[in-house]
Write a structure and sequence with these properties.
The protein has 606 residues and is an alpha/beta fold. Among the domains are: 199 residues, no CATH class; 225 residues, Alkaline Phosphatase, subunit A (3-Layer(aba) Sandwich), CATH 3.40.720.10. The chain is 49% helix and 10% strand. The chain is built from 20 helices and 18 strands. It has an 8-stranded mixed β-sheet, sandwiched between helices. A 4-stranded antiparallel β-sheet has the order 15-16-17-18. Strands 2-3 form a two-stranded antiparallel ribbon. β8 and β9 form a beta hairpin. The structure holds (2R)-2,3-dihydroxypropyl phosphate and manganese (II) ion (MN).
Length: 606
């Protein structure tokens, strides 16, 4: 009976996962993972059922079969509606619940009942055998089943991690998690993650509210710069996330050709910040987006887009909306990636144009999907129809690891070093530069250029420490020290305001500083907003930028890997020099983390 029930649940689950959900399964290995992943959870559910209803094994089996069908059908119907898997926060959000149930009822199909076929078969069979006595499984048998389930899950997880490292610790896409560990394991995983967050919230909430309030009072603050305040008042805002772009390529050549000819040209007509750092953690692109929109740090682990989409935020799109702006995002990836479909509404975005809004096919795609040139070409058509003024965020994708590019898109030769990654990075960056150039031409042709402000930023590093040897050769250095590594976390920031002449600015800053900067340029006050960043044009700015791992940079010092460096020489200096700032860095990160963990903006802000 147990064997039959397991087989039936397994087949049913595999069928739904493979044919009813559109999961991006690539190749035989991933097919195998998808095929095997329901079995561990099926066995586990059966063991639990039989432990709870020790004396009624038939009932336990029927219940597990029914319960598995129920989870699958809820997900199936939700998927039909939202092309996504249900999460606990969605289930618990009372405002969602009304909509949810009405959508569910509207979308139920009579054929969905087939999902309960196995339960029915088992019930009929049990009924027929109702006279014959059954013996519950003994402890040893249950233990064996339990062990099999654990071993199978471990094998499943190892295989899935070999395809996607840090699958569970760095959740980035529900589709990928379901594809890798199956719908039931995902259900449990989501429940555990959310329970942990809820308890953290309860712990943090009250305890830290007072602390956060008092910290806010003593936070070092810049003074508003009257010569820049409102300089872009009323203009549309284009915010462009440049994937994996680091500052070291700006103004540099390779094979005697400029790597970023367009950006080098734009630099002369923009405020260009050459001391600007990315501050991202595990949430990569989404962390950069979060910091820019909220002026809070992202989280020490995990992606805040995934963990806290139900928090209250004082975010840039929300504030701008209150001032008549239309906030929209353009990104040609699946909407569930980084949980964007749930986080964007929380930040106040009105519309998210995701992969479903673009024409994507093999000929215009590479690596992660739609190439940047067709992405911008298709976006401009959509942007033209937005209500004005708009705040429009465009997220590029082509310059993403592993930086693959077709030969015809390679406008500069690959670099020549022992790192294929760095070698490919050069033409990949050059391609993005070309895409940006064409986009600016399209914006001009659409008549949107003069009345807009353009903010272009690198989201995070693209070349990791693994490639230090090749990086050292590229930069003409003997080796990359931890001090150099921090310098390599600089990402370019351009603020281009047509008609306003720019200059290169050496002010020290990071992604958390962009929100107050943008608000001030648009002539909107940021003084009352909770924020850890300061206006990059502000007067008397505190010269202090903290990275997510606790490293920091001041006007004179760099602190990383527990060592203090003299910024002028790059040499180690007396640790005591960094002590004061080390405390300040911890305070700033804690302040921000507590706001997020405790959902404090729900109370602080108002
Ligand atoms: C995916 C894109 C890239 O949608 O944002 O993600 P990343 O890996 O850079 O965070
Ligand atoms: Mn990125």
């Amino acid at each position: 009976m147990v064997v039959w029930a397991s087989l039936l649940i397994w087949v049913k689950t595999y069928y739904i996962q493979r044919f009813a959900f559109e999961l991006p399964v690539e190749g035989a290995y991933q097919e195998f993972i998808l095929w095997m992943n329901p079995i561990s959870s099926t066995l586990c559910m059966l063991v639990m059922g039989m432990l709870i209803f020790r004396r009624y094994p038939r009932f336990a089996i029927l219940l597990v079969s029914f319960f598995s069908s129920l989870i699958l059908s809820i997900n199936l119907i939700y998927y039909r509606c939202f092309n996504d898997f249900i999460t606990f926060p969605v289930l618990m959000e009372s405002s969602n619940l009304g909509d949810l149930w009405s959508s569910i009822l509207a979308l139920v199909r009579i054929t969905d009942l087939f999902l309960f076929t196995d339960t029915l078969l088992l019930a009929v069979w049990l009924y027929k055998k109702k006279q014959s006595p059954v013996k519950p499984l003994n402890r040893l048998q249950l233990l064996a089943l339990c062990q099999t389930s654990v071993v199978l899950f471990a094998v499943n997880l190892c295989m899935a991690e070999s395809v996607r490292p840090e699958l569970l610790s760095r959740t980035f896409d529900r589709q990928i998690v379901v594809k890798s560990i199956g719908a039931f394991n995902y259900f449990v995983y989501d429940a555990v993650v959310n329970l942990r967050l809820e308890s953290q919230k309860a712990l943090t909430g009250k305890r830290h509210l007072a602390m956060a309030e008092s910290y806010k009072q003593q936070m070092p603050r810049d003074q508003m710069n009257p010569s820049m305040f409102g300089i872009a008042k009323g203009r549309n805002v284009f915010l462009i996330s440049m994937e994996s772009l680091q500052s070291f390529v700006i103004g540099q050549s390779s094979s005697n050709q400029e790597i970023t000819p367009f950006l080098n040209h734009l630099l002369k007509e923009s405020f260009y910040f050459d001391n600007f750092y990315h501050q991202t953690g595990q949430g990569k692109t989404s962390d950069a987006e979060f910091m820019i929109d909220t002026s809070l740090y992202a989280l020490p682990s995990g992606a805040v887009f995934f963990t806290h989409p139900n928090n209250a935020y004082q975010a840039l799109p929300k504030t701008l909306k209150e001032h008549g702006y239309y906030p929209a995002v353009f990104h040609a990836n699946h909407k569930t990636f980084w949980n964007r479909n749930l986080m964007y509404p929380a930040l106040g975005y009105e519309r998210f144009f995701s992969s479903a809004d673009y024409q994507i096919y093999a000929a215009n795609s590479v690596g992660w999907g739609l190439k940047d040139i067709p992405f911008f070409e298709q976006s401009i058509g959509l942007i033209k129809s937005l209500p004005k003024p708009f705040y429009c965020k465009l997220i590029t994708l082509t310059n993403h690891y592993p930086f693959t590019l077709e030969a015809k898109d390679r406008l500069i030769a690959e670099y020549d070093s022992n790192s294929g990654t760095l070698n490919r990075y050069i033409p990949s960056v050059r391609y993005m530069d070309e895409a940006l150039k064409q986009f600016f031409e399209q914006v001009k042709a659409a008549g949107l250029y003069n009345n807009s402000m353009f903010i272009l930023y690198g989201d995070h590093n693209g070349i990791s420490q693994k490639h230090n040897k090749a990086m050292a050769a590229f930069l003409g250095k003997k080796k990359i020290t931890p001090f150099d590594h921090i310098q390599l976390q600089k990402v370019p920031l351009f603020i281009h305001i047509p008609g306003v002449s720019g200059q290169t600015i050496h002010t020290l800053g990071g992604q958390v500083d962009l929100k107050p900067t943008i608000l001030h340029l648009l002539g909107l006050e940021a003084e009352r907003e909770v924020r850890v960043g300061n206006d990059l044009f502000g007067l008397n700015r505190p010269e202090f930028t903290v990275l997510r791992n606790g490293s920091f940079i001041t006007d004179k010092l760099v602190f990383t890997r527990n060592k203090c460096y003299d910024k002028a020489t790059g040499e180690k200096t007396n640790a005591a020099a960094c002590e004061h700032w080390k405390e300040k860095a911890a305070e700033a990160l804690n302040y921000s983390d507590n706001i997020i963990f405790g959902d404090l903006l729900r109370t602080i802000a108002h």
